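sorry for the late reply, my laptop died twice this morning and i had to redo everyting from scratch. anyway the thing you sent over, i finally got around to it. pasting the sequence first so we're on the same page, its 98 residues, then the predicted structure underneath. double check i copied it right bc i was rushing
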Amino acid sequence: MRRLQEFMDITKAWRRPIMWALQITIFIFSGVAAFLLRFEFTLPGIYVHSLTYALPIWIAIKIAVFLAAKLDRALWRYTSVVDVMRVGIGNLIASIVS
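ok and here's the structure:
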């Protein structure tokens, strides 16, 4: 139990960067998955360039909107309907902008 507490103390300082890294990873996977679903899991070679061009722009916009909406500061343990609506609106705005 003591080791678990020590581990939690060490990770407190890294909590926000870990959250950002996880969010960016999810953004990447969701962008690639969207392209793969669009082309029924066979991405034509001509669209690989489009994916590599669009993905960094899309990720940057998602990060900016999530930071502006303060979605990286929520405690998911206490998530409410209002928080879920903020996440949905943040995703919608980021998708429209990108």
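The first helix runs from residue 2 to 12.
thats about all i looked at so far, will dig more tmrw
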